[in-house]
Write a structure and sequence with these properties.
284 residues; globular
Length: 284
């Protein structure tokens, strides 16, 4: 069992790293080639950031969240966009919802998309008001033309940006954070059966859904999808779970900034609880 868990965790880690590695190459390439246009049409327009992030987050799976995290780490989008994508995403649980409760799944995706835009706006306002210090973005080094004379752009890009920057600086830290975080969580999931210890009280369920949502992987949250499909929990609990949880989406941010990860999670938990309590108050 231990060996199987280690192998499963290793394979899952490598799969996620491969996706993020490809996304980081794409982000860095476009940042180098179209830096001014990106700054003009995306970076300088917060509403565009929130909307783009929420749409990507509402897309089933963690791809959209990975892309925005990579963009945030490079300074292309801000903290509000990061919050927006995490609010909107339901991770791999989105596929389970589409299979088990398709109509409710589409409603959840739409609501989370709208809430993501709102949350992104509020998060940026809160950061400005409280003057919280966020981590500095990983600036992409723009080399001068004379520095790459005699070399093709792609040869220079592969050596200086893909190998020296992404592979040597980012991938090792990313592997360590992903592997050991998921390994600990996977071992805990082997020891505890969440469904058997959930209470029946709706208010308690909302708080538990928010707390479980802190777990930064896809998997534990599926229990809320299955319980809703069986008519055991109300819509408000499922929505809170979808708002707070991020699938694997937030894990890559840990390797960039633990502090920013903490800020995102705290905001999302409080935002999700607020929405859940409002729904509970009106009987949903």
């Amino acid at each position: 069992m231990i060996v199987e868990t280690l192998l499963e965790t290793l394979l899952e880690t490598l799969k996620i790293i491969l996706i993020i590695f490809v996304l980081m190459i794409i982000v860095e390439f476009f940042e180098l080639k179209y830096r001014d246009k990106i700054r003009k049409y995306i970076t300088k327009k917060p509403l565009t950031q929130y909307t783009t992030s929420s749409v990507l987050g509402a897309t089933p799976g963690c791809f959209g969240a990975f892309f925005i995290v990579s963009s945030y780490a490079h300074g292309i989008v801000g903290f509000g966009a990061l919050v927006a994508v995490m609010i909107a995403t339901a991770g791999d649980e989105a596929f389970v919802m589409l299979a088990k409760i398709p109509e409710t799944a589409l409603l959840i995706f739409f609501i989370c998309l709208i809430l993501g835009i709102i949350a992104g706006f509020l998060a940026d306002k809160l950061i400005k008001k409280t003057k919280l210090k966020l981590s500095k973005p990983c600036e992409i080094e723009i080399h001068k033309k004379q520095d790459i004379q005699g070399k093709s752009f792609f040869g220079h890009f592969l050596k200086k940006h893909v190998y020296d920057h992404i592979i040597k600086e980012h991938i090792p830290k990313l592997f360590i954070w992903l592997f050991f975080t998921m390994l600990i969580i996977n071992f805990l999931m082997l020891r505890f059966e969440l469904a058997s210890i959930l209470p029946q009280n709706k208010l308690a369920l909302i708080f538990i859904a928010a707390l479980v949502g802190i777990i930064p992987v896809s998997g534990p949250h599926i229990v809320f999808v299955l319980l809703f499909a069986q008519g055991i929990i109300p819509f408000s609990v499922l929505l809170v779970s979808s708002i707070v949880q991020d699938g694997h989406g937030l894990l890559p941010l840990l390797s960039h900034s633990v502090k920013d990860t903490f800020y995102v999670k705290i905001f999302n938990v409080l935002f999700g609880l607020g929405i859940g309590l409002i729904l509970l108050a009106v009987g949903i």
